[in-house]
């Protein structure tokens, strides 16, 4: 693996726009490998297996944990989410930069395992804006919405864990993408590159 490759960990509160950002980056053909998270949660309308997530049963997920197939995993709101280790290894072996989308808890776990990874936190312009975005999704009950907002407040306190903080303004995805590209470019110009060993 080239020492010039990067693993970018993208995190931030639920509803901040991580999925929309990655979708836009894929549409614009940014040359990253976008790791597809494994989850035991039910598929939402319009989601595709192997594209949005790898959808598995709780039993299959437990087997993946037992086999050491996940870089990190967590139980979030009663559903399991995990990052497949093999997919990252495969992408790096092909010389690709990798983007991994995880929640803040997952980012903290990866930071312990791979401290030289690049960590980016995507934050909302305000908590009011985040609440509005979550309400517009119509995918959470009032109780779940309250839980997600409470968790978002806690996650905002985790900023010191990250290398970079970017603000996700509505309708300004391209601006955030440019900032991510600038971060990756700067990483490739480091005098002492981050050496990543999985």
What ranges have pLDDT less than 50 throughout 5 or more consecutive residues? none
How many β-strand stretches? 9
Specify the biggest β-sheet.
5 strands, parallel
Mean pLDDT: 89
Share of residues in helices: 25-40%
The fraction of residues assigned to DSSP E strands is: 15-25%
**CATH superfamily, called what?**
P-loop containing nucleotide triphosphate hydrolases
- Count, helices: 7
Record the strand order, biggest sheet: 2-7-1-8-9
Cα-to-Cα separation, first versus last residue: 11 Å
What CATH calls the topology is Rossmann fold
Mind telling me the CATH class?
Answer: Alpha Beta
CATH-derived architecture: 3-Layer(aba) Sandwich
Could you say which overall geometry the principal axes of the C-alpha atoms support? globular
One letter per element, helices H and strands E, the order comes to EHEEEHEEHEHEHHEH
Number of structural domains: 1
Structural class: alpha/beta
C-alpha-based Rg, rounded: 16 Å
């Amino acid at each position: 693996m080239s020492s010039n490759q990067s693993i970018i960990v993208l995190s931030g509160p639920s509803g901040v726009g991580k999925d929309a950002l990655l979708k836009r980056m894929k549409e614009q053909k940014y040359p990253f490998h976008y790791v597809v998270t494994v989850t035991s949660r039910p598929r939402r309308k319009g989601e595709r297996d192997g594209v949005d997530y790898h959808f598995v049963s709780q039993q299959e997920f437990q087997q993946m944990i037992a086999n050491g197939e996940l870089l990190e995993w967590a139980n979030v709101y009663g559903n399991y989410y995990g990052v497949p280790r093999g997919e990252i290894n495969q992408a790096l072996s092909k010389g690709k930069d990798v983007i991994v989308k995880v929640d803040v808890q997952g980012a903290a776990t990866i930071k312990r395992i791979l401290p030289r990874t690049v960590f980016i936190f995507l934050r909302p312009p305000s908590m009011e804006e985040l609440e509005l975005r979550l309400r517009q999704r119509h995918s959470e009950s009032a109780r779940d919405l309250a839980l997600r907002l409470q968790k978002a407040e806690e996650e905002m306190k985790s900023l010191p864990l990250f290398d970079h903080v970017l603000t996700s303004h509505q309708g300004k995805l391209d601006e955030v993408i440019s900032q991510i590209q600038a971060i990756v470019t700067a990483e490739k110009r480091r005098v002492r590159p981050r050496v990543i060993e999985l």
